[in-house]
User: Fold this.
Amino acid sequence: MKNKILAAIAVAVLSLSFLAGCGPKINESQPESYDVNLNVDKNTEATLSVMVPMGDGGLEANYVEALAEGFKELFPKVTVKLDYRDISDNTYVASINAAIASGNPPDLFYTNTGFYYYLISKNCIVSLEPYYKAAKDAGVLNLEADYYTSFFSMSECDGKRYVVPRSMDSVVTYYNTDILAAAGIDPKTDARFNNEFTWEQFNSLLEDVNTYLTSAQAKTDGYADCYALDPCFDWEAVYNPIMQSFGANIFDENGNIAVESENMTEMATMINAISKKGRIIKPYSSSYNFKAGKCAFFFSSYGPTKMNEELAVRGKFDALPFPLIGENGKIGCGFAGWGISSNSSATQRDLAWQFLNYMISKEGQMTLINKGLATPSIRIDLAEEKKWSKGFENLNLDAWLVSEDKKICTDYFTKFDPSKMFGIQNAVQNFMKNISDFSKNNSVAYFIGSFKSDLEAAIA
Assistant:
């Protein structure tokens, strides 16, 4: 089952820079094929530049620096240099354009489930198929046997993969054990807590928590200001699997807007209905979130080590899988990783591949884990052995690993030019915020109509 995730090309939030529709290209065209050298001279002298975010508290930089230490043992005369860039939803495109315009772009471009499509559109990164084929033929890399291969395929475009993921991200359902205990819910004995977790079971839990939070006892216990769910409904890794579970498409196969459908209405009505019930859904304007200890449930791709950094919930959480909706239930997922610059020389390109190959090796993955990377490894052996969650063996770690064949990421953006992406994403996010905001009294039909109008403006 490990190789059957039906993951499509993932394209998500890009920036307002898209609206200019401009920006330089690193090359005018992509090479159809190129020669690769898997046997790079160990004494090669070179500097390998790796793009890392400058606004994440040094997280990715620490990972790359840790990898660089191990890589130094393989190639002692290669220096790994960090290329810091401002990387966020609103700055990624500008940062990439600046890197291209500088004439000295990095050898390895940092990207994720959303951003990689822009790199391909600017011919910034090369297809990695020549390396995958050569490594497989040489017997030095067996993706199908050793890895969750679909996380590699999430960067696919026209049948070619462009990014090597450093880890895999899967959305799970965190829960606050203290709030549930106060509500009289015991995960150890409650049959609703299982790894085939369904939306029906989840909705039943939300109802029970809501009953408690609106009671006099909750006020006595100090939980009257809490909510049942911190949903992140405007996050594509949450709304996309929900929409797809209902068969609610945003565009049809020809790129026509398809939101005025029974399936979209059913999905929107479901979310809108639960938003109207007491204290189930946290308002978007509220800081009373799960990490502050103010919500019973939370959709997130955090690993347990990362979640345990939040003081208000430290030692007070566990996880379930994302709740499956109906027979076609889906789970959101994604990746972060690097693609190789199409501007690099053949030698630099081969060294870049060697760095990525080391990153996904058992030693490289353990280096990342030991440096604090707390999401499941893309290596099957390390993921299933729970090496990524040392110290949290008492938690339901399988929540991150089950139902792999149901994990998906977005693909509807690829029907349009990259200049349309920000507008499309903004339209979807506004729609999800509207239908889940209990302070708004408009009908679902009204929200869908507004959604359609926003999409029409976005793709015009």
About this structure: Residues 260 and 448 are 7 Å apart (CA to CA). The two ends are 41 Å apart (CA to CA). The longest helix spans residues 59-74. The chain is about 35% helix and 15% strand.
